[in-house]
Amino acid sequence: xxxxxxxxxxxxxxxxxxxxxxxxxxxxxxxxxxxxxxxxxxxxxxxxxxxxxxxxxxxxxxxxxxxxxxxxxxxxxxxxxxxxxxxxxxxxxxxxxxxxxxxxxxxxxxxxxxxxxxxxxxxxxxxxxxxxxxxxxxxxxxxxxxxxxxxxxxxxxx
Length: 158
What we know:
mainly alpha; 5 helices; globular
């Protein structure tokens, strides 16, 4: 089955967001490179979500992935608002942007599990999506507070 240009844009934006998001999470916060990579991540996520909202190939109607795209756009918007607000709310920015990345990882994992030929027909979409979301949310709840404290402490000492 040929891939549409909208699907191709969605997939390309997803790969870009995965790369830029990982770089942003791993690099020193508050630098001009961090801001540039963060802007690239945000742009890729916006393209990804808008494309997702326009894709109906899987079900033919508005569904759970569309709802998650809206939630992601809101999360990204809150993350941006937190960093441009005066005074800046770095903790809120970090939380919103990292949870948007966890959502991206969860969606990517779900898509991979659903479309890998070896698992095709074995893995069910809804159950896989829920399990992936729970796993990434749990991991994020454990790991992200530690990383956030470290990142914010480094900014405070600069």
